[in-house]
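Researcher: Let's continue the batch. This sequence belongs to Cobyric acid synthase, and it's 501 residues. Same format as the previous ones, please.
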Amino acid sequence: MAKSIMIQGTMSNVGKSFLTAGLCRIFAQDGYKTAPFKSQNMALNSYITEEGLEMGRAQVMQAEAAGIQPSVWMNPILLKPTNDVGSQVIVNGEVIGNMSAREYFQYKKKLIPSVMEAYRRLEEEYDIIVIEGAGSPAEINLKSEDIVNMGMAKMANAPVLLVGDIDRGGVFAQLVGTMELLELEERERVKGLIINKFRGDKTILDSGVHMLEERLSTPVIGVTPFMQIDLEDEDSLSDRFTVKRNVEAIDIVVIRLPRISNFTDFNILENIKGVSLRYAACLADLKNPDMIIVPGTKNTMKDLLWMRQNGLEAAVLKAAARGKLVFGICGGYQMLGQQICDPLGIEEGGTISGMGLLPVKTIFQREKTRTRVRGSFQTMEGLLKELSGEEFEGYEIHMGNTVCVHPMLPVACIHNINDSEGINKPEGGFVENVFGTYVHGIFDKERIVKKLVAALAAEKGLSLPEVELMDFARYKEQQYDILADTLRTYLDMEKIYRIIF
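Model: Same format as before. Here are the structure tokens for Cobyric acid synthase:
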């Protein structure tokens, strides 16, 4: 049976996900079969496994760090917020329904058997399981029904490392306050403290470290530096949305929807010389881009109304009228249509008009489409004609069924990878310079990105040098190694191994 160790934090965004990934990498490098685990993840960035099941991308990233295939057993509960007080609840990859925060709070202990089934599956297959907590274990209003922090640690009988974020300030109060609010049994489970995101001379902290160890009778097993590691992060707290990027020769803007999902679709566009990828949450951010992407969202209707109210919808319509490339993916594709209908109240209920840029109508249904697909671009016209015939691979995650109300040309022809018959079908559609598709990952292939950038440059009369793209898979492997090397330097790995074994 596997050994385990759990990473908990004093609050959200202290670095739990990256520390979990780093430890997964270290243990794998040291010859242990290692898997990540997070009993309950709240995120809008999700992933479809080879079996057609849905899980959080943070655990996919951690599985990559461990050198293994991602599995829904690594994230048995995924909560995808639909509004400020409710979420879609996904258990072991399958949607079981939408619940308000109060409904889920009262219901979640019924999911313990599902959580433990997933954990036991990993326990039988791996040597070490690195468990990630969520938020803080000291949220006293949530502790009675906890299944993700100390509740999970108890069920797995896992020792805990407690992490505080010094970059935000008050790290000593974070760690002491959290420990003081834990029950005696919970405090005894905490075997080590980590101060994360430190900048500067570590010796300045020595007096504080000694105080922590004396007051809490718990060793500080590492002071880890602020790391510029380029890995996928939790969607709601991503720095990608707030970084101010200079406008380059080719400027691509993603609309920063309040409930944006799967923005990892665009990561490959971030590191191309002469290209800027920016996120715009208001008219002032938009400026005059060469391409506007309307991304996926967990609430198409509400986010479209948000765009309508703040003027971004009008700006997209004006850009389309001027011939700018507008590309909608998933929920963004639905928004570009003529109408969105929700007769069953899946999102907001009722019917609203779309942007009217594509002749399609979307009707929300209870059954969720979750599938990995392979396909190729159809015969394209206009700006993206050079993409004709290019092959891609990706996945679909959506509740709506989108149908044409007037003829239009499909963007692609796809088939379900898991479908043994491999039936091809048209997908998405375009009218002149406006394109829409349900396929996440449609830009992931190097040839597609090169031709996309070349087309945008030609439209502006520019002659950019040959687009050079990094080997993205190799780049991520390098980032995992940098993360592991850094943690080996600043964590007491011998002590961590003694805690585990």
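Researcher: Any comment?
Model: The domain at 3-231+477-500 is CATH 3.40.50.300 (Rossmann fold).
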